[in-house]
Amino acid sequence: MASQITQLHEKLVSKEISCTQLVQEKLDALAKNQYHSVNFLLSDLALEKAKAVDAKIAKGEKIGLLEGIPFGVKDVFLLQGQHASASSNFLKNYISPYTATAIQKLIDAGAIPLVKENADSFGHGSTSENTIFGAVKNAHNEELVGGGSSGGSAVNVAKGYTVFSIGGDTGGSIRQPAGFNKVYGLKPTYGRVSRYGLMAYTSSTDCVGPIASSIEDIAIVMNAISGKDYHDQTTYESAPIDLSEFNIQHSTFNIGYYSDFIDNKGLDANIKKDFLAVIEKLKAKGVTVKALSFKNADTLVSTYYALAMAETASNLARLDGSMYGERANADSLKESYALTRSEGFTEESKRRIVGGNQVLSQGHADEIYLKARALRAQIMDHFNKDFKEVSVILSPVSPASPPKIGGSLKDPLAMYLSDIYTIGFSLGELPTLTAPVGTATGIQITTAKKQDELTLKFAKFLIAAL
Fold this sequence. Notes:
It is a single chain. The chain has 466 residues and is α/β, with parallel strands linked by helices. The protein has 2 domains: 1-297 and 374-466, Amidase signature (AS) enzymes, CATH 3.90.1300; 301-367, no CATH class. It has helices spanning 4-13, 19-32, 43-58, 101-108, 151-158, 175-180, 215-225, 259-262, 269-284, 299-315, 333-344, 347-360, 365-386, 412-417, 423-427, 452-465; strands at residues 38-41, 70-74, 112-117, 164-169, 184-187, 207-212, 254-258, 288-292, 392-396, 432-435, 443-446. An 11-stranded mixed β-sheet has the order 1-3-2-4-6-5-10-11-9-7-8, sandwiched between helices. Helix 2 (19-32) runs antiparallel to helix 3, helix 10 (299-315) packs across helix 12 (347-360) and helix 10 packs across helix 13 (365-386). The longest helix is centred in the C-terminal third of the chain and has 22 residues, at 365-386. It is globular.
């Protein structure tokens, strides 16, 4: 699909449509939708900004490429003066005191935020069912989950309610719902986009990235939100992604895939068959393909969740009703803390907080947490070694197609295992894109650190090749 951003920009400039008309149509669609993808509409803010864009065009002034383009915001980002609930009881009435850096950069470029989007509470989940706003329904089959945790963001893009959305990816939270809803989703290199104003889940793997219906739109948004931010010391300066070379097709890529991933017993037979068919088509195009080995693939899930639960327990310790959220009344301060957290957090969030405190507790930290950190270092070394042999690694996005709503809540372990193909690349801090081609849940494209442009270029080539 061609760039929606570019198409809408041309229509705005030519006055084929007004920005107010565009925004109102999107708001009306969001208000009527039955997919539980919306937490809060930003109608007043959006229409005010749309009128300003129309006034600028009426005066004959030039507008930027993103100016007047409506987008969605996962409800774990702060937007000053607007709700930021994290889809939780805890923060259901919380109003943002400032705006997240990535969102502010888009607003500064003229893009218009329309909606705070439904997600798993505090990012805890892989289905967007763990939310007070109702389980997000898949864009293509309402009986199935929308994926998580950025489920509402992916569904809104897939249904055309937003032109693009900004999500957060900790262990696959952009890539997996993008695959489930057949759109593009990018987890950039860790540090390319500021995390400032994103509610922290696992600080060492949290990434901010776009979900869109085309590779070009992913690139346009990335160019707007990337860059160093003094609020986030993990960020770095990055060169803009060069859109001019995106139409160049060539077969000089060296491709790798992990045979351990494909031989995993948990991989759906149809996804395996379709993935291997993609590999054969690439070989037929003259692409060099190499089977790689990831001998400790079975440790990816345990390593990730040991670290993720430890970090989320630490990050969410600040939520006790004193500074943030609703505080429960009780006879003592200790009881107030306990009751507030018990009522405010969902069962899945409680599970992860308890697990994290166990991992960090005396007698367990050395045996679990420190070992997980050591394993992560080994995993990163493994990826560094593999990217000396290949330039791109392909993998499935998910081991299975989207489950029916309600099924995953009964089996948390199965939900954790559904992240097996996404979490490793998060631990490696690598840029990874879901492209909605090849299998029922798409193909995952990964390159070495800071090679985000190559990730998108290969995606363009892959689509042409298939």
